[in-house]
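Provenance

Sequences were taken from public entries as deposited. Structures were produced by running a predictor on each sequence independently, with no templates supplied. The record for FGD2 protein from Fregetta grallaria is shown for reference.
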Amino acid sequence: MQEPEEKKIALELLETEQAYVNRLHLLDQIFYTELMKEAKNGKTVPEEVVKMIFSNISSIYQFHANFFLPELQKRMEDWSCSPRIGDVIQKLAPFLKMYGEYIKNFDKAVELITVWSEKSPPFQERIADIQKRKVCANLTLQHHMLEPVQRIPRYELLLKDYVRKLPPESPDRDDAEKALEMIFMVAKHSNAAIAEMERLQNLWVVYQRLGLEDDIVDPSNELIKEGPIQKISTRNNSTSEKYLFLFNNMLLYCVPKVIQVGAEFQVHLRIDVDGMKVRELNDTQFPHTFLVSGKQRTLELQAR
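Predicted structure for FGD2 protein:
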């Protein structure tokens, strides 16, 4: 007799989980443990750096090795009398939110490896030494570190497939569908963590370009658009180059700095979006002009 399709997928889940736990073991018990030991002896890099590179990999490893994998193994051994995995995955799903921290930290971790490999040859040598071992299968530390980032999407794909192949009357249908919904929410959670990290990173770059003015630096601000603009001077009928940053709560009217040491722009004026009005003008001499009027001031501007 041929194995039912859903069992094949459940077995694939178990096999990939075993391989995944081996990869986590390599990251936590070999790379992290050995690099930490060297750091404690003061031979390579500060301990803090090693902790930042590996984030919460230890918690992720313990969870998969001591809980999820044994539960899956037990379930597959009992398959003939209880063909189901949905309930186990439901128990697992909330813990996968731990990945948010790891994923958020991933780009920073990879950057730290590069920076400190240049700064500290002993650190680079230690990593190279571990990478030469058979267990690494000729792959770099960065390559192995990518595995947890890809794991949740993998669960989602396998579970989607599993639900699709389940017979309508299967006792696991309700649980498996609920589990899929939960995994989907976790995937969304980690994607949101990545998006938030990127947003804050981009925001910080903008603040640096503005010279880190105290009353402007706020993590809750959202940059909507930025770009060059011409300011029209009605007094002498001329225009001068300016630069605008539009946030969700304010419009910053800036002057590009001639000598760009530190900040790129100087903030000349800040107009609150609250109560701000924008009106297009029909000016034959200056096409594409508009008026921005706010509580603070009114500006006549020309776009490209």
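Residues 173-209 form the longest helix (37 residues).
The CA atoms of residues 71 and 88 lie 7 Å apart.
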